[in-house]
Amino acid sequence: MKNRLVEHDNWATPKEVYDKLDAEFHFDFDPCPLNLGEITLENDGLLKDWGKSNFVNPPYSRKLKEGFIKKALQERERGNTSVLLLPVSTSTKIFHEIILPNAEIRFWRGRINFLANGIQNDKYKAGQMDSMIVIFRGKKA
């Protein structure tokens, strides 16, 4: 399978951002871990089942980001909660048709300093976009 990650999509969540969300949601799965290398059928977060409480910082390229948003909605239907860290993009079709009617949205105050390959991002002092936390809470059976 061809590697779907592009270099500019390879940014990690700072520990303090992750820890703050983990304290509330107690994550047990990350379908988008940093530096997977080659995407295979065994480690493709879009193809495998997720955990009960998922942290998702997807690649920001449009096609991949939308794939993870749609997968989070599917996981919600299975009873799983997914917390996505996404760029604020409120004029998009996916925001109005999938996120807004199905998820809780929290806007992150200030810009997040993402990490490049696990190292503090020194190319930009902060992310180029504002961020939002999108929460798809698992439906109760």
Secondary-structure map with pairings?
Blueprint (H helix, E strand, L loop, with lengths): L10 E2 L2 H11 L27 E4 L5 H16 L3 E7 L5 H10 L1 E4 L7 E2 L2 E2 L10 E6 L5
Parallel strand pairs: 2-3
Antiparallel strand pairs: 1-5, 3-7, 4-7, 5-6
Helix pairs in contact: 2-3
Oligomerization state of this entry?
single chain
The beta-strand count equals 7
Strand order of the largest sheet: 2-3-7-4
Structural class: alpha+beta
Provide the gyration radius in Å.
14 Å
Alpha-carbon distance between the two ends: 36 Å
Walk me through what this model shows.
Strand 2 (53-56), helix 2 (62-77) and strand 3 form a beta-alpha-beta unit. The longest helix has 16 residues, at 62-77. The chain contains 3 helices and 7 strands. It has helices at 15-25, 62-77, 93-102, and strands at residues 11-12, 53-56, 81-87, 104-107, 115-116, 119-120, 131-136. A 4-stranded mixed sheet has the order 2-3-7-4, with helices on both faces. By secondary structure, the chain is α+β, with helices and mostly antiparallel strands. The chain has one domain: Rossmann fold.
What can be said about this structure in brief?
By secondary structure, this protein is an alpha+beta fold. The protein has helices spanning 15-25, 62-77, 93-102, and strands at residues 11-12, 53-56, 81-87, 104-107, 115-116, 119-120, 131-136.
Tags for this model:
Rossmann fold; disordered N terminus; 3-stranded antiparallel beta sheet; alpha+beta; 141 residues; 26% helix; 3 helices
